[in-house]
Amino acid sequence: MNEIDVAAFDETIDDWFIESLKTYKDLHVYQLEHPTRVIEWTAGKTICVAGYSSTKNEMLELLLPLKLFADDNQGLCAERDFKVVHGGFTNGPVNCLKHIQGTRCVVTNDGLSNKLQVWDVGGNDSDVIKSSGCIQPTRVSQSGSKIAPGLTGDLHVLHGSQICDLQLTDLTSGSSLYSVEKDIPDVLSSLQFVTGSVFLACTCGGGLFVGDTRTSTVPTPTPAEGRESELWCMAASSGLSSPEQGHHRVARLSSSGLVVLSDLRDLSSCVGRAQLDIQRNIPSHDFMNVSWAPALDNCLSVSGLNGLVEIYDTSTWRPECREPKPLFVHQGHVMSSVSHPSTSPPLVTSHIWHPSRPQTILSAAADGSMHVWDWVDSTAATRS
Q1: Are 254 and 229 contacting, i.e. CB atoms less than 8 angstroms apart?
Q2: How far is the C-alpha of 20 from the C-alpha of 340, rounded, in Å?
Q3: For 23-51, what is the HEC assignment?
Q4: Around Cβ 276, how many Cβ atoms within 10 Å?
Q5: Closest to 199 measured CA to CA, from 208, 259, 162
Q6: Which secondary-structure segment (H or E) carries 259?
Q7: Which helix (H) or strand (E) holds 375?
Q8: Fewer CB in a 10 Å sphere around the end CB: N or C, the chain?
Q9: 3-state secondary structure of 73
């Protein structure tokens, strides 16, 4: 790279850095030894991450920079970096990781079979994350499982690689508490509880299934829309901020950038549709991620289609397809690769909202970078 190129790249980074002083309330950067595709909250200030390489991987519980939580007294806070609280190793990749609410337990899957691994994250008396068992599903599969912990804090997880092998398992006894008693081979892309017993499953083809672990009734299917070649993932809002109790919105994201919004009470009807402007074609869509902000109304985030995390206000979306502009775009992972023009910008592999801080997000990318950022909504005054 010649001197002119170096100067141009330096200027791009400088411009973004200056702009970030206005667009971020906070931005902290951490470099993992190996990239992760899982970020999971274990408490209000700690997360669990793990690598996905084919060999041995680290699993870490990290304490977020305390400066992030210092509010108006940030200048008095010395802790400005992530801190490893607990750590351990897995013998293979971690493609899915979920924390059991109210415990020090996480459950993982390696993506190579539907077997689950159970881990004790440790406490004050130990800094080691230890394996505490495994769960072998009733139906054996060579496909990776999706995992959905319950909302009540019970030691139960719903898991499966296909609709037909979905089961609810008690982690203490290993016994199956619920299973789907019909041969539906559709492969799962997303799985989530929306109440203590009702769950929502999305297939790779975009179909939605609603089930209830209290009954043996086969989950009710809702067909997908769009091209058959597209891959889909899904997220349901918590419904906590809605004036109507139990009102959940469901967002489906396709590999072409199409987002379809539905109401859980009538999944067959579309209440909003948008075609996102995707700037990059990628050979794999393993990292596609759509997520609702838990503490902001109508805010939806998307990643895994390029090197960005994009945030959208869905309050004005209608069934007629539109091409909305994002409220905010996190370009930090792309900027970290600007000084290496011979390589493509790293794909964002995961992102997650803070459960109670409205505009705080964590994101990770394929180069091992991990960011925690508190974004500024410059359009808030206009929209209100």
Answers
A1: no
A2: 21
A3: HEEEEEEEECCCCEEEEEECCCCEEEEEE
A4: 20
A5: 208
A6: strand 258-263
A7: strand 369-375
A8: C
A9: helix
Cβ-defined contacts of 122-131 (< 8 Å, 24+): 122/61, 122/86, 126/86, 127/85, 127/86, 127/87, 128/86, 128/87, 128/88, 129/59, 129/60, 129/61, 129/86, 129/87, 129/88, 130/88, 131/88
Distance CA 139, CA 137 (A): 5
SS3 assignment, position 133: strand
Question: What are the tokens at 64?
Answer: 């977020």
CA neighbor of 166 nearest in space, from 142, 147, 194, 193: 147
- Rounded CA-CA distance 113/342 in Å is 36
CA distance 134 to 119: 9
Q: What is the pLDDT along the chain (384 residues), one digit of tens a residue?
A: 444 454 554 566 667 777 777 889 999 889 999 999 999 999 999 999 999 999 899 999 999 998 888 765 454 444 568 999 999 999 999 999 999 999 999 999 999 999 999 999 988 888 999 999 999 998 888 899 999 999 887 899 999 999 999 999 999 999 999 999 788 899 999 999 999 999 999 999 999 999 999 987 777 788 777 666 789 999 999 765 444 445 789 999 999 999 999 999 999 899 999 999 986 666 667 899 999 999 999 999 999 999 999 999 999 999 999 999 999 999 989 887 655 555 678 999 999 999 999 999 999 999 999 999 999 998 775 555
Query: What distance in Å separates the CA atoms of residue 227 and residue 206, rounded to the nearest whole number?
Result: 10
Q: Looking at 151-219, which runs of residues are DSSP E strands?
A: 156-160, 167-170, 176-179, 188-193, 198-203, 208-212
In the structure encoding, which two tokens stand for residue 49, read together? 């991450």
Distance CA 369, CA 353 (A): 17
- Residue 308, classed as helix, strand or coil, is coil
CA 144/CA 137 separation, integer angstroms: 12
Q: Where does the chain have alpha helices with state H? A: 3-23, 332-335, 380-383
CA distance linking residue 247 with residue 250, whole number of Å? 10
Segments in 290-368 forming alpha helices (H) = 332-335
* Coil/strand/helix, residue 74: helix
